[in-house]
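Quick one, probably user error.
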């Protein structure tokens, strides 16, 4: 793929032109990425204080006993959104759902242990170990290229 950038001071607004012999999956991916909305704000409550959580700081988000929690290096926050609402707000290139009750940040994963039969063990950067449910194993393997 060739990339060409032209700087023109008379141009008032950026313009993207894609030239190809035919429509391909790569072109569709580029179009989807360019048309995506910017990530939305996620806030969490800790010690009776509401804080804006940066997506890059999130390690995992999980549901337990009817509540949703977001874990960062600074601690654990209660989030007032449902997991499916958070999944819509999170960067799809960085976050992946590994079970009905958990979403992880792929950039905060230390390793995936594939030796378990029927599931995958995930070690996160903060030392927490979690597991991919059987329902999501094939999706994770596809993302990992396994």
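Nope, works fine. Designed sequence:
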């Amino acid at each position: 793929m060739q990339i060409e950038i032209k700087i023109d001071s008379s141009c008032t607004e950026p313009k993207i032109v894609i030239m190809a012999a035919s429509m391909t999956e790569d072109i569709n991916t580029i179009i989807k990425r360019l048309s995506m909305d910017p990530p939305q704000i996620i806030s969490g409550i800790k010690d009776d204080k509401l804080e804006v959580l940066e997506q890059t700081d999130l390690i995992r988000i999980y549901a337990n006993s009817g509540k949703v929690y977001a874990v960062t290096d600074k601690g654990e926050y209660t989030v007032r959104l449902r997991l499916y609402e958070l999944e819509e707000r999170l960067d799809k290139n960085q976050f992946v759902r590994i079970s009905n009750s958990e979403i992880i940040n792929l950039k905060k994963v230390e390793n995936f242990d594939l030796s378990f039969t029927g599931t995958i063990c995930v070690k996160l950067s903060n030392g927490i170990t979690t597991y991919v449910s059987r329902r999501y194993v094939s999706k994770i393997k596809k993302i990992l290229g396994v």
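Strands lie at 42-46, 49-53, 60-64, 67-72, 75-79, 95-99, 102-105, 109-113, 120-124, 129-132.
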